[in-house]
Amino acid sequence: MTMLQNKPWPSDNGQAGTLSQHLVAFCRLLRAHGVQTGVADAIETLRALQWIDIAQRDQFYTALKLLLAKNQREVELFDRLFWEFWLQKPSRKKATREEETSRQSKAPPASSRQKQAWERQILNWADPDPAEDEMSVAGYSPIRVLTYRDFSQFRFDEMQEIINLINWIARNLAVQFGRRLRQTHRFDRFDFRRTIRRNLRRGGEIVDLSFQTRKRQKFRLLLLCDVSKSMELYSRFLLQFIYAFQNVYRSIETFVFSTSILRISEILRHGDAQTVLSRLAREFPEWSGGTRIGESLEQFLQHYSGFYLDSRTIVMILSDGWDTGEVEKLSCAMEEIQRRSAYVIWLNPLMGYEAYEPSCRGMQAALPYVDLLAPVHNVESLKSLIHTLIQMRRKSGVLKRARRVTHLDLSIRERGSIS
Amino acid sequence: MIQNELQQIQEMLDEQGYVADREIVMAIYLAMKLNRPLLVEGPAGVGKTEIAKVMARAMNTDLIRLQCYEGLDSTTALYEWNYQHQLLHIKLEENSSKSIEEKEAEIFSEKFLLKRPLLQAITHHQPPVLLIDELDRADEEFESFLLELLSDWQISIPEIGTIRAAHIPYVVITSNRTRELSDAVRRRCLYLWIDYPDFDKEVAIVERKTPGIDRELAEQITRFMETVRQMKLYKTPGVAETLDWARALVTLHQTALNPDIVEQTLGVIFKDWNDIQQVKSNLSQLLEQIGVSTILTPEAIEKIRQEKRASSDDDVAE
After folding, report:
1. Is the pTM of this model over 0.90?
2. Which residue of A has its CA nearest to B72?
3. B89 and B69, same structural domain?
4. Nearest chain A Cα distance for residue B39, angstroms
5. Residue A132 or B164, more confident
């Protein structure tokens, strides 16, 4: 096997300027496409170039790739952009520079201001244009009135409260529950008290040592969000919900599904709410399409579950359970999701509707594999969810799987939150 | 000159029985020249860990390995005082005339220090290869701790003081992507993505690692693995499984694939019951695809008939 093919660069490809200039321009191009390269990377790459023979195209290519692409996605992007850039005509390079500057002008705010920024974004959403809202009301009639009322309940000042509530849920679900120390045989931290006590019977001769370690119970959050037509009424709220969640806790993964599934964590992490919305609409054409929960979840299990599902993961599914796909697939997928996760919470906006029973086929199929079923359609429901979570935590210290599914709907109705 | 050095690395890897393409060679070369850690990602069983092992052997230095797991902390990764030993020492010195300061200095001397991999790596007498295996399994706190070490190359132990690295080790970090590593770690490293090898490379690996294997069998095995990797499986088999299988077949004195032997040895390749079932039910098709004749014995035909019947019964039940 020959290691390197001796393919030299074309001696003159019509480009003026020094190599370092081109390199910086290339870094900019990468950045414009979402590859995170900083000035330091460019400098480091220049430094690396002295160690290779840049006349050898293959060496140049692999060295740049090793230094500039930092994950699998970026490797793929790099492969595409590299040849485009280094073998292109000069005129196109100018275009990318323009593209980059225009992008910079709408770049998301600096990290210190980012938090405020997304909160502002959510607040902006909360102030809906009534005409637009009315237009977006469609579909399933008995719920329509209620939904409309739900949305009218989102007053400007309530939004801050919602953000706070979501904040609480995200932190308390994901961050470790136990802080108590437990005894251990590993050399973790030395337990002086127990050591002395254990050795008292030997008259203070210290022979046995005790150690302790921190009880850990750290969870990851996984959000699976139904964005099909039947959920469209809630899409505004849903987006607020997802967006807020993603921003308060880092180790959360978000997927949207209708007839297929898409991971949107990355999209949510970059850019402001409006960009996110437009990107989602563009990249997920199934938005507001039909619902095939079973197929979508199956797809999730096939492609993503290895990375995103384990016994420390709390799965949150946001869906009304209206499924037009095969119900068997749904229950199969749900069974596997429950088996491979720590806890499954199904948040159903339709449950806010008084006459609602989880009787639709999809919900019925999924129900046996859900640990907690709760409504989520207004502030009260969020509060009530928190209340339940606190109680469960008090009881067992951690979220533990009960044998039967916990319904949250009754408490809501009794409180009369839906007036 | 550069060409020479690259060639040298390639040859060293070859000698160690590691079939490396030019990207891997370049990665090792640059990691050494720039003194930067090498972050290797890719599917399971493509030889990520092997890179570090081979590097150590090729450079004739020691390999220090830190296997990450959830809950890994500094006492298991860095250092620990040998409490028992210390207490015994105190007991022994109880009646000596040494002053308390002297005793204390003794207790907290290197004699009672248990060096864990990271401390071992920076105090080693020559630059070792430090393999931080499956970093994605450790938690984020450990990751940031590691980041500090990778940039400063020093460890401070309150009782002794700061220990600076005598030699900066060659660091190889591997990740299976069960969790995304932080950008900070990525930025500090050279990034190498290893995918499943292409056909020629995998044949070469099989031949290299399985002495006495037929060229034809090696090709058949590789083609079978390539085809199987296209299927939607729960656990896609890697190169490690290819090698296991090749060895198993050689041990069984096989010179070519046939349906029976494949079916009997599927457990070597697939580690999940559902996967085995799925492959079994498509086996004849799979083998036909890779050009293995599937002339069936009467018993096998009968068996397939039964299975067909059973599955069609299932369909009816649905």
Report:
1. no
2. A188
3. no
4. 9
5. B164
